[in-house]
Amino acid sequence: MQLKALLAVPELGLNLKAGRSGLEREVKGGYTSDLLSHVMSRAREGDLWVTVQAHQNIVAVAVLLNLAGIIIAGGIEPQEETLSKAEAEGVPIFTTDLPIFEVVGRLYALGIRASNFYAALAQG
Amino acid sequence: MLRWLKADLHVHTVLSPCAELEMGPRAIVAAAVANGIGLLGITDHNAWANVPAVTALAAREGIAVLAGMEVQTREEVHVLCFFPDLASLAAAGEEIRRHLPRIENRPEVFGDQVIVDAEENILGFENRLLLNSVDLSLEDVRDLTRRAGGLFIPAHVDRPAFSLLANLGVVPPGLEPQTLEISSRLTPEEAKRLFPTLVGYSLITSSDAHRLSDLATPCATWFHVAAPTLAEVVLALAGREGRKVVIMSNSDEKPCSS
């Protein structure tokens, strides 16, 4: 599924705030945490990352791991520096008023799974 | 004339709910004397009300106190903020308080938040829960501190919780801290090996004491300064005018290495 397809799902209530140039990216899985050290060691390339962390370092982590994009949930508005960095790097950032639990539940219902977890299962 | 001064810039008092009730001003000063500390940072969570009492008592022992707070930013990152004097600390403290959620402390869950004077009379209790994030970003807190002529230090950056590196992964570009604090569990070399993002930065170590026995740490930060003041500490961190800072082992007073 491409990111831009999620933008068309009204149940997610997504607002694109930055990084329109990356909307064609394929969402290969999902990851949720607000601790960037956890994301850096556990998220996988192509993951859509759901968080309430809005600090500018989230863009650096997304670039580092080549994540598909970032959803900032819970009605939290990212800082201006975060959005300008995301725009410069072409990392799509969405906001939604939905609480994180709802966002992740609805993404799961759309078929998105935790790629790091299933990769580990596949390896036994 | 420059002299070496042993420092512990991260000590909590009974105002911090998570600190033991033994962390009264008298006992803290006595522990500082016992550990040979000449410069003490008093840093309660998002609060400063016990700094005057410790400052007055410490002065009798020839120990200087840096007026500070440990602020918890919106990103749940702990930072030490030091100010040139009590007036600027109080002003910054009021601003921090305005950004602290209005949630009442529950002493039976979090612990008491006790305000005391230099005689250890209880002046009152802080009713608002101090163990919380202020609605200010890391950069907001840095700017607030520096506008007041203060010093901003990300705290215990190697810790797995409430730390710059656990929560934000790397030192954010543009943050430009004058130094970062590592916990006393690691030497500077170990910290830089585990967290390469720290390479090139000045580091200090402190006890983050929540109980008296915490003040006895394996390593300590020493400043080579003309006086035990914030301005001199800032010069030492910059390595200017002959001032410097080193981390030394407390057992053999040699540089603390792994």
Characteristics:
heterodimer, A: 124 residues, alpha/beta, Udp-n-acetylmuramoylalanyl-d-glutamate--2,6- Diaminopimelate Ligase, Chain: A, domain 1, five-stranded mixed β-sheet, 40% helix, B: 258 residues, TIM Barrel, seven-stranded mixed β-sheet, two-stranded antiparallel sheet, 8 helices, 11 strands, globular
The CATH homologous superfamily name of chain A equals HprK N-terminal domain-like
Can you tell me the overall shape of chain B?
A: globular
Shape type of chain A: globular
Q: Which fold name corresponds to the CATH topology of chain B?
A: TIM Barrel
Number of domains of chain B: 1
Strand content of chain A: 15-25%
Largest sheet: spatial strand order of chain A: 1-5-4-3-2
> Which two chains form the greatest contact, residue counts included?
A-B, 15 and 14 residues
Number of helices of chain A: 6
CATH domain class name of chain B? Alpha Beta
CATH superfamily (homologous) name of chain B: Metal-dependent hydrolases
Distance between the termini of chain B: 32 Å
Order of helix and strand elements from N to C terminus of chain B: EHEHEEHHEEHEHEHEEHE
Q: What is the overall pLDDT average of chain A?
A: 96
Main sheet summary of chain A? 5 strands, mixed
Order of helices and strands of chain A: HEEHEHEHEHH
* Sheet with most strands of chain B: 7 strands, mixed
The proportion of residues forming helix of chain A, as a percent range, comes to: 25-40%
Report low-confidence residues of chain B grouped into runs of 5 or more.
none
How many beta-strand runs of chain B? Answer: 11
